[in-house]
Target: Penicillin-binding protein
Amino acid sequence: MLLFVRLLSIQITGQAEGRQMAMMAEAKYAKEAILKAERGEIIDRNGEMIASDTLSYRLIAILAESATEKNAKKPRHVVDYEKTAELLSRYIDMDKEKILSQMKAAIAKNTEDYQVYQTEFGKAGRDINHETMLAIKEAAKNEDVTGLQFIEDKKRFYPNGDFASYLVGFAMKEEGEDKKISTVGKMGLEKTYNDLLTGVNGKMDYKTDFWGFVLPKTEKQIVAAKDGMTIQLTIDKTIQNFVEDAMNQVNQQYSPEKMLVVVANPKTGEIYAMSQRPSFHPGTREGLTENWLNDAVENTVEPGSTMKMFTLASAIEEKKWDPMAEYQSGQYTIYDKTIRDVNRTGWGRISFLEGFQRSSNVSMAYLLERMGDRTFIEYLKGFGFGEKVGIDLPHEASGILLDINPSERLTTSYGQGSTVTPIQMIQAATAIANDGKMMKPYVIDRIIDPNTEKVIEDHKPEERQSPISEATAKQVREILASTVTSDAGTGRKFALSDYTVGGKTGTAEIPNTKGRGYLAGDGNYLYSFLGMAPIDDPQLLTYVIVQQPKLEVGQYGSDPVAALFTSIMESSLKYMNIVPKDSGSPASVSLSTTVGKEASDAFGEMQEQGFTPILIGEGGKVISQYPEKGAKLTKGSIVLLQTSGDTKLPNFSGWSKKMVLSFKMLSGLDIRLNGDGYVVEQSLSEGSVVSKVDPVVLQLQSPEMKHSPVKFEDESEEEEEIIGG
Model:
């Protein structure tokens, strides 16, 4: 009777000893599995990887003897602490004694009521790659070491190594207040966009039996993980690599204190490359110094004579420029301040044009007299100096325009005293390169939700109000080109072999941080060049700074600057398929459009014009083509024609990376690239029909390592030899 009453009571109330039986059963048999979200990817303008999550492992040593079942053939816990510590010390960044003491210290905490089950090894035991995990398992098996387990985890992976490091920054594992370990951005874009990049973990609820097996016919309740946002940059991985390689070479040869390079598209304001030295590997932080600033945005410099191009533009816009008028070079005095030209005595009585070509400070003083120094300062404000450009990067500095007295306005005209950021110089120069249209620089192209494939932010070129006209911009470019071509020009070292270039050199003094005034002595200057090419219609704008290079006898500060600029610009313009100046290369033809035409007709039309058409799809009407109408191509160049249906693979041999990426974009195929340069091998043969889920692997090599490539757009065999030289 008592048993019956007890059962009836439990059945009616659902309680036993004051506890809800349903809740107890739920707690005993209901399980929850965490579905981990991936941190968002950072990719370049073509979708190539810059930063992503990759599989890693966390090392655990099982210490509790209870982990091993009775009569088990092999222990599941650590038996030999000495041998275990010795083995692990060979594979993780922790010495044997420390590993041993950590395991023994954990065991020492055991009591009658509490037993330590496992221990981990901090940073040394996290982010272990797959190869190391397998090696530890194999060694443990061979050496009869037990109790080691691995838990799958994620770590941040930077496949390009030292690559735009101060722009991208880095993320690392960090333990939060809740004792949970997560990946947190600590610098650069990883930190600025940490909230967007951080995903939201999901979960799966399910029920198990006493032994932990999932009960049949029970529903699993799944809350899907939401991966972090994908951030697509305006950075072009290939151009960025040109910059990194050139900086490495110059760093090895000249060992400067600092270097900076920014490459931009002057027509849109997109930043194609941004790097500085010293730099570091974002995965290991090797090379990271006490400087955590992105110098292109967060630091200011005195620009030196590169500022003269904006003084010149202001004078031309004010109609105060007379290139053939003469002045007495050498020195100029205003009140109690005397300024001098670089050679101190000048070149006698010369024209203003020659004065600009020789980078005469005195010529700037006379230009200020003509247009008025306060008017000049207003022009500089119109170019964006003295205020932030509003780039999509944090902690932007604004620089300072000195405007208290006439002598400060005078020194500002040739780039001394006032300070600027390199990104301000880029923005101001777009007005000259882009026919008077000044463009706001930006580095974020799009932010994409990978869970829905929706674009949540789409950044577009933004035009700023410019202080100069199209006519002024063109005239300034002609004068900038003369600094490179004239015998009197300071920019002769910056001439390109295949493209016309214009720009302005700069040699700025460096403020003495230990006292007043500036540093003195050979090489204690900040050397720079702000240049654009091709000068008739600039497609690239590049700003190079080299600070305090180590110069040998006969070397000049402009040497490392020129080595950077010419290497980066020549390679980048060729990669972009920009038609070189007329130097015996085949004549270019303006491409017509075939969109809307039948594929067979479009094929014939392209062939008649001397191009090589490649069909994407099965045929029918042409949906789109690449390059688009109006592009100037040399005969023999490939033109991609997109139609609907399945695509047969062409022979990719000799294709440039840029053309392969264009084919990938139009076809939607899963094409994977190994290496840089031009295609030498493909995983599937020509004519194969593949679906969009079948991977096609292409092997690329740099031009100097392969035979003559196929011509694309405006490329020729002669040009490819130059790239490899």
The longest helix spans residues 237-254. Residues 35-233 form a domain with the Penicillin-binding protein 2a (Domain 2) fold (CATH 3.90.1310.10). The chain has a mean pLDDT of 87. The chain has three domains: 35-233, 237-288+298-575, 588-724.
